Protein 1
Amino acid sequence: MDFDLFVIGGGSAGVRCARISAGHGARVGIAEERFWGGTCVNIGCVPKKLLVQAGEYGSWADDAAGFGWSIQKGPHDWNKLIAAKNTEIDRLQGIYRRLLGGANATIFDGRAVMIDPHTIEVDGKRVTAEKIVIATGGHPERPKIPGAELGIISDDAFYLPTMPKKVAIVGSGFIAVEFAGIFNALGAEVHLIYRQPLPLRGFDQDMREGLAEALAINGIILHPGCLPKKVEARGEGRTLTFGENETLDCDLVFFATGRRPSTAGIGLDKAGVAVDAGGAVIVNDSLQTSQPHIYAMGDVTDRVNLTPVATAEGHALADTLFGKNPRGVSLKNIPAAVFSTPPISVVGLTEEEAAAEGPVDVYVTKFTPMRHTLSGRAGRRTTMKLVVDQATQKVVGAHMLGEDAPEIIQGIAIAVVMGATKQDFDRTIGIHPTAAEEFVTLRTRTRVAGVAEQGKAAE
């Protein structure tokens, strides 16, 4: 065989797996057809957060008056922001290539297709490998409605030539609420159209309710319970028909209605690799596909589609195959963040999930952060929540809506993963004055949920 390992996909999972495997002494090849670093670095979490931060600077300029500063805020320069973002992304792409080269991995710039279970073709050149990793990620999809091609998807949003003045965003997941905050903060009129009663399906109810309230206070116009029906061109503008035949004229229609694993056309059938009905590669706990020597990881498996999970899977598999250190990655208690405005961050179970498993004690606090008692800015209320298993007193869920939530929950996640109890939180001294200290000063139980609650209701 030409290689001990060949990795298809140069995103977070693929690059980590290739680099660590090569570091362990394996002969490694890796192919990427679009851009090194994958979705996260190029058209995902990294540039998205830069745009979020751009909007925050505008808010801070406004808020400064409450602290005695007189700041004249000029118009925002969209093109300057995008140019700066592009420079940073180019720098990161270069780092990914250098890391691979430094580890002596062989780099292929092109589309890799499997010809048989051990043969890969990249731009007309065929190579063989003992083991193969599929790490091709996912891609956004447009809804199947007339005129869908007239709207953009998240891939396009980072390269818009001009900042739109009026935007219709269809969807209410991570991408939808994040870009609603970005465009709103940069001065656009934003409409959020979604089929659920609240945004962020699957998140804790208190977080969903709090975010919907914050979005509305911030000036984002919400259209819950609505499905898109069609998009029509109106000169350079667009008309979106949705709900009960409501129409909205806007500059831009942005579809954030879901993503699909990128498995089409890479030869999975010829290699004997099985996929599910949604196109995701089916894997076992060891990341093996239906072909034991072929592995898959990251978003292409459509399990937990988060960059740190993909990176961890890549590292663990490399250590297992070539580092004499077999290990896996637990998909339990994975912290996550939504960089909405304000952001949400969570780890562990929602109240609803925990209550389905047994009685839980629920602690909730809501307050205005110190900064905004002087700034006067509305829509920045913080909500913090702990979900505690009643029998063991272990904290099984921690949730926060509010400024700095992702930075705070990252530390809380360590405690949750370690199995900390509510009493462990209680005896931890807080850092004052911070928002974070609220997590260790929650003393009054807000409610009981689950089996115990149902029993009380029966009585």
Protein 2
Amino acid sequence: MPEWLNDAVFYQIYPQSFYDSNGDGIGDINGIIQKLDYVKGLGCNAIWLNPVYDSPFMDGGYDVCNYKQVAKRYGTNDDLVNLFNEAHKKRIKILLDLVPGHTSDTHEWFLNAKKAAENEYSNRYIFTKSVWDAPPQYRMMCGICERNGNYLVNYFSSQPALNYGFYEITHPEWQLPPDHPDCLATVEAIKDIMRFWLDKGADGFRVDMADSLVKNDEEKIATAKIWRGIREMLDKEYPEAAMVAEWCNPQCAINNAGFHMDFYLDHYGNGYSRLFRYGEWGNEAVFNSNGKGSIKDFADEYLPAYECSKNNGYISFMTNNHDMPRITAYLDKQAIKLVNAFIFTMPGVPFLYYGDEIGMKYQGDLVSKEGGFSRTGSRTPMQWTSGKNLGFSTSDEIYLPVDKSTDAPTVENQINDPDSVYKVITDMIALRHKYDDLKGNGELEFIYEDGKVPFAYRRGNLIMYFNPLAAQSEMQTAYSGDVIYKLGDSTFADGKIIMSPQSFVMINIK
């Protein structure tokens, strides 16, 4: 296990929307290099970079046509290597985004697989034996190849699924087992891509749809076996490299598949959703000030997952990501401050989505761009200054529009504001680095009275108390100590803590 993960705080960068260094309206790698000091100033010591590979951008770069080539819009391979080098000088790690489940339908592998004549890539993807064979339980593209067959896609029609085999074979005439040589060749091709970028300085990978490899694998037995083999390769050849899974099942992703981290994702109804987004636009979330949320419902799901995986890896909370609406669509500013106090004091390895530190808004009325659809409003350009395009670009035409409201938050107007989300996030990250009890692993004990709020949790000698309610509230407590940080007012008296509306306090009982 790479030791650096225990004190890691990641910053997620959507490259086309971060900073445009050459004035073409699209963010680029050199723009990221120019903003590394900003990332460092947040307290973040690692970056997750969304895909920068060559792509037709039918799905924001998650449709890769060349895994070993940086897309021209972002720069060159040399620029990416330069980013690795400059980041490392500042002690910042870089994880690339790995897309192992599918490619673009313009990838050279797929162009060969579509051919009628059999070749070494014929089984790199999943084709039926006949164009008339399109089983309804599978998402198939029909009748568009010279090859007499239909192919399976992972989601969009432009994303043919790579062939890792089928754990349960329902159509033996065209389905292969995971140990078939051609399926094993797909695994080796992914390892080759990983080695290519690790050798150039990458520090690991965030793995897109990590649980999607082997089909008909409901328990993910064969898929986990593939990732364990990849983890063995990393442990042997690149022991400091790390992988984080888009899986949301720590028992499977961390314990069985060998990932170092697993995202705690926004699957509706799960613990993450119940904290921040549950109900219609978050009206039953724990951090909604109306008090309808249940911390017990979160804890009942999260704590068993934490206990079973904490010795093998990290559960990763995120402030948001490129696939879900920014939390500004759900909660008010004070609630968002409490959300971030929670995320950055919980165990695991936290991820901060670009722009969340300044409270960027979700722009829900945008026309879909590059397969974004409802996600487009969370992928708008970073807002740096009050200048043209809010400092993102000097171009007259930019990738997506910036926030045009008069109160649009920017780094310029938030960074020195004592009432800003920026201040809370940077304060929390600084405390996380300072206190060992707040780092990635360690003790965690939840404290609540009836499953509702307010609530608290203990990590070593530190206790975090939260009152998300819009009214003053109190709870029984056996603890008191030195106040390390607070939002709002709190008073300890007669075995109780009395907290002002939407407040937080961290104490040290040592």
